[in-house]
Amino acid sequence: MLVTLDDIRRARHRIAGRILETSTVLSPTLSQRLGSPVHLKLEHRQATGSFKLRGASNAVASLSVEERKRGVVAASTGNHGRALAHAARLEGMRAVICMSTLVPANKVEEIGRLGAETRIVGSSQDDAQVEAERLAGEEGLVMVPPFDHPAVIAGQGTLGLEMMEAVPDAATVLVQLSGGGLASGIAAVVKGVSPGTKVVGVSMARGAAMKASLDAGRPVPVEELPTLADSLGGGIGLDNQLTFAMCRDLLDDVLVLSEDEIAAGIRYAYETEREVVEGAGAVGIAAMLAGKVRAAGPVVALVSGRNIDMALHRRIVCGDVGAAAQGSGAWAA
Ligand SMILES: *Cc1c(COP(=O)(O)O)cnc(C)c1O
Question: What is the pTM of this model?
Answer without folding.
Answer: 0.95
